[in-house]
Amino acid sequence: MNKQISKLTDVLALLVFGAFALSVLLALLISAGAYRDLSADAQAQFDRRTALRYITTRVHQAQSVTVEPFGDGPALVMREELDSGTYLIRIYHHEGTLRELYCEASASLRPEDGEPILEAEALDFSLEGRILTVVLGTDRLVLYIPEGAEVCT
What we know:
Elements: H1 2-61, E1 64-70, E2 73-82, E3 85-94, E4 97-104, E5 115-119, E6 123-128, E7 131-136, E8 139-144, E9 150-151
Parallel strand pairs: 1-9
Antiparallel strand pairs: 1-2, 2-3, 3-4, 4-5, 6-7, 7-8
């Protein structure tokens, strides 16, 4: 009789240990999924903030700012006068990426010629007076063009 109780106790202890191990494994799997989702969200937010900060910096450095159609959508175009000539910096969205194209003003290049900066959702620019509005996905940025820069509307 004692042997049967001992075996039953052993089996019961093994079942309790198995249930505990299974619950720990399940908790780890759920936590890993939640961490992966939070990490992806944090990376997406970082990319959006980086893109908006990049655009802000470029606008504040510009000598001349305008918004023109380029490819399938608008491009932020900044003109730069150097001793060697006039250059354009275009910032625009093409094939899921924020891109920059730096070229001579007379060059005729296509949207795919630009340098990819980072992956981005849809990007839109609008310019009213000295107020530039940038919409990147669900984020909206409103910038005042500095007085030293020429605004071409």
